[in-house]
Amino acid sequence: MPKAAADGARFRLADDRGQSSVEYASVVFALLAVIVACSLLWRTLDEGLFVSHAAAGASHHIGRGSPGAVADVLLY
């Protein structure tokens, strides 16, 4: 049982008022960060940016006809 003060009030080592508000704010911030990241990924996939970069990289290797391109494909 906690020690009582002269006026009968109890001492507490830590005050937990407001903790749920801080936890709620941190969860909302994390959720918004995930939503923003997913929307940016969706936009990038919708624009075809990844596909265009892959096609550009593949055309450089295929167009040169260098033996290094074959080694890249076989050793990947």
Describe the overall structure.
By secondary structure, the protein is mainly α. Helices cover 71% and strands 0% of the residues. The protein is built from three helices and no strands. It is elongated. The model has no long low-confidence stretch (mean pLDDT 77).
- If helices are DSSP runs of H or I spanning 4 or more residues, what is the number of helices? 3
Helix share of residues? Answer: over 70%
How many strand elements?
A: 0
Q: Could you say which overall geometry the principal axes of the C-alpha atoms support? A: elongated
Largest sheet: none
Q: What pattern of helices and strands is seen along the backbone?
A: HHH
**Distance, first to last CA:** 67 Å
Task: Enumerate the spans where pLDDT stays under 50 for 5 or more consecutive residues.
Answer: none
Structural class based on helices, strands and sheet pairing? mainly alpha
Supply database-style keywords.
76 residues; mainly alpha; 3 helices; elongated
Which helices and strands occur, and which strands form pairs?
Elements: H1 19-47, H2 49-64, H3 67-75
Brief overview:
The chain has 3 helices and no strands.
